């Protein structure tokens, strides 16, 4: 059931919600939270569909804030609020209100949204695109216990992560972090088994993929070892390799669905790691409303502490195959010599640490733990 209101007010919208609820046969309010989506006219459909799908798991009142400030001075001088109240059908088990703020009213979304919040219920604000530089300082962000952004939707995702680290406040989260939950769970389960000391790690993924950066930051923060960020053709994250004394632990996903986990001394096995939809990501974020301390630790670890990205290797031309082979042999000899020197240096460092009674290397507390999301 849909009800359209033109040039209306927040009180009239509340009255329309009560009428529609009674007409639909739902006199009681069964929503558990208010989800505020701040978007524009071009992106509100996809965001609303994802939120409606997530509301089947978390019944909520969805407020879609669509700012339309206008282009001409005359349009910007007019303040008008149009609304559309939806209940039942595609909206799921909750309520949906589309708020179109015209003209000067587009700068006062806080005053429009505040009277429409569910009483005594948590508030979550989601910016699918064009999130503010500091979500916790935004007026709408001050209403929320959780503030959801998406660094992948920005022009420079890596720079956006750096800004998120500078402006982090308890309750902030990002869908780039939510996307790596299955990866973190599989890696934590693999490291819960008996393995040798970890000396380093490599995370491979697309060049401008913020989830790859966050996964590398999480491993570096939890394991306390050097982590290199390598570039691949994607899609998304393609592989994680952990170097241990017993061999290499490898989680490789060449496609978007199935990954292969290789652990030294165990048979290789396949793991389902599909790329999830936005609705699944939002549903996961709505399961918890407390601050995500693990996300905070990984985000603020420091992108500059990761290894320099490695460029993907291109195949050599047939005509240059012989010269490439010769150069490869020289490179192998160089790497072998360097490896022996590095091994000798590592043995010396280990002997010094053992003599001082302060051995280095990750202990049991440094292993990644599976995080309940």
Q: Key features?
A:
373 residues, alpha/beta, 2 domains, 8-stranded mixed sheet, 11 helices, 15 strands, elongated, disordered C terminus, G6PDH_assembly_OpcA, Glucose-6-phosphate dehydrogenase assembly protein OpcA
Topology overview:
Layout: E1 2-5, H1 10-23, E2 33-39, H2 44-54, E3 60-68, H3 73-77, E4 80-87, E5 95-102, H4 109-113, E6 123-126, E7 146-149, H5 157-166, E8 172-174, H6 175-178, H7 181-191, E9 198-205, H8 210-223, E10 227-231, E11 237-244, E12 247-252, E13 258-262, E14 269-272, H9 278-285, H10 293-299, E15 307-310, H11 321-356
Parallel strand pairs: 2-3, 2-6, 3-5, 6-7, 7-8, 9-10, 10-15
Antiparallel strand pairs: 1-4, 4-5, 9-11, 11-12, 12-13, 13-14
Helix pairs in contact: 2-9, 8-10
Biased composition (Basic and acidic residues): 364-373
Domain Glucose-6-phosphate dehydrogenase assembly protein OpcA C-terminal: 170-299
Protein name: Glucose-6-phosphate dehydrogenase assembly protein OpcA
The percent range for helix content is 25-40%
Number of helices: 11
Number of strands: 15
Q: Strand pairing plus helix content: what structural class?
A: alpha/beta
Walkthrough of the structure:
This is Glucose-6-phosphate dehydrogenase assembly protein OpcA. Residues 51-166 form the Glucose-6-phosphate dehydrogenase assembly protein OpcA N-terminal domain. Residues 364-373 have a biased composition (Basic and acidic residues). Residues 170-299 form the Glucose-6-phosphate dehydrogenase assembly protein OpcA C-terminal domain. Residues 311-373 are annotated as: Disordered. The protein has 373 residues and is an alpha/beta fold. The chain has two domains: 2-149, no CATH class; 181-313. The protein is 34% helix and 23% strand. It contains eleven helices and 15 strands. The strands form two sheets. The chain has an eight-stranded mixed β-sheet, with helices on both faces. A seven-stranded mixed β-sheet has the order 14-13-12-11-9-10-15, with helices on one face. Helix 8 (210-223) packs across helix 10 (293-299). The longest helix is centred in the C-terminal third of the chain and has 36 residues, at 321-356. The chain starts with a strand and ends in a 17-residue tail after the last helix.
